[in-house]
Fold this protein.
Amino acid sequence: MQLSTVILPVRRWSEGGRAVWQHAEELGFHTAYTYDHLSWRTFRDQTWFGAVPTLTAAAAATSRMRLGTLVTSPNFRHPVTLAKELISLDDISDGRITLGIGAGGNGFDATALGQEQWSPRERADRFAEFVPLLDKLLSQDVVSHEGTHYSADEVRNIPGCVQRPRLPFAVAATGPRGLKLAARHGQAWVTTGDPKVVAQGGTSADSRNAVRGQIERLGKACAELGREPGELRKIMLSGFTPDRPLDSVDAFVDFAGAYAELGFDELVLHWPIADSVFEADLAVFERIATEGAAQLAGE
């Protein structure tokens, strides 16, 4: 299992922002992701920078670690403009970008551009159109498409991605339509668990059982398309289950081991942020990144 982190864009680059991304590489994280939101929950009235400029700066400040979004959504993105930015970012990073992508939710991004909040059905419809068009835009030099929600008119994306045929997609999904998109277009699948488990006061075991069900449904979606489920990497974004993996190295090892047994290839931890829902002891976090990761690797 590979260990990654997600660094929220809450620090000025000259006041610790650059240092955090460089430290993540020093600690040996496989990938450092960031959220692609205009603002997010309790951080709405606090410092929050854009994902693509942040990742561009991180690409220039690092050299080995992969970088990515976790996740981008159609809430305020259009496939045509997003594709151009991603191709540029993939070039600047020398092919180190992964696009985490999901249908989006009902947060601040959902109405920031002045639109009415989409119904769950419309959100799924848009996502089902967004992902295939983005796939084409990132893998073909010239694309034209006329859709219900998104269109492209002779769009040029030359020279394309450094990674061929395009940069990888990590598709966040739990519903049947999203899982089919992950099975068809994804190089990885992302989950945060089942929010109903937390809302209902469920246990860690309940959470793992819910995720096990998600994996089974993903396998069925792959089978329907004639794809081997093992071809799709499985990514767990922690922090949204009843578990507390950042309390200690032992707690992390137990948590990671349980999800490794479920078949996950990558575990993502939130970089600690003081006075927030992601508050944690940085010294313990650093030990997890080194000692905990070494235990998982059997070193």
Strands lie at 2-6, 31-34, 66-72, 97-101, 142-146, 151-156, 169-172, 188-191, 233-237, 266-270.
